[in-house]
Amino acid sequence: MGLEVSRLARNSADWHRLLELCALTSTLILDEEGVYDPASFNDRLLLSLKGTMSEAELHFLKARMRGGQLNKASRGDLKIGPPVGLVYLHDGTLALDPDAEVQAALCMVFTTFERLGSATRTVKFFLDEGILFPRRLRKGPHKGELMWAPPRHARILLSSEVRIWTPWAKRRTDPSLFCGFVGLERRSGLLQ
Question: Can you give the pTM of this predicted structure?
């Protein structure tokens, strides 16, 4: 016996496969409105309609949530987690992360990205050298704490775009004006 039709029906292809399987094995499906036998044409038709309605409901929920986000963004109230290297201050403005190791890691991303020319090569360099990359936890009991882990392509790509907001973007001719590798440690030893 299957329970909670609306939750199972949010993916039309999966839902119809489930109805077929239930019809073949003489399994009943029930919800708060009744008991259905997928082997019966009328019940199967009704279950198909319920599945279609559930899938549409999920679409409308997502559209409303997206609309809410866009509304907040248009008012300037939408806060999303900033990429590594930026933090929200108490007044809600964005600023460079005050942690020297984070700034050094970000600087290393900038210079490596510029030298190698791609995020993929930058990630490979970090992985080959065993260099860990920082990230701030966004939720849970340790929200805001710094964690070090192997870099991922998307995180490096986002970090390379942080240059737009940093003083380093204005000093591309001499990245050492912003980037000092002082304080950057590989978690397995001192970076050389």
Answer: 0.51
Please identify which residue in the block is written with the tokens 């499906």.
29
Distance of CA 34 to the CA centre of its chain: 39
> Which tens digit of pLDDT belongs to each residue from 4-34?
666 666 778 888 888 999 999 999 988 888 8
| Domain hosting residue 155, numbered range | 86-187
pLDDT tens-place string over residues 117-132:
888 888 899 899 998 9
Residue 103: band (very low, low, confident or very high) from pLDDT cuts 50, 70, 90: confident
Closest CA to 113 of 133, 86, 90: 133
Closest by CA position to 46, among listed 7, 9, 2, 1: 9
d(CA 130, CA 136): 20
Number of domains composing the chain: 2
**Does residue 192 belong to any structural domain of this protein?**
no
Q: How far apart are CA 90 and CA 95, in angstroms?
A: 11
Domain annotation covers residue 81: no
pLDDT of residue 15: 87
Strands (E), the chain: 29-31, 34-36, 86-88, 94-96, 133-136, 146-149, 185-186, 189-190
Give the mean pLDDT of 30-52: 90
Residue 42 and residue 131 in one domain:
no
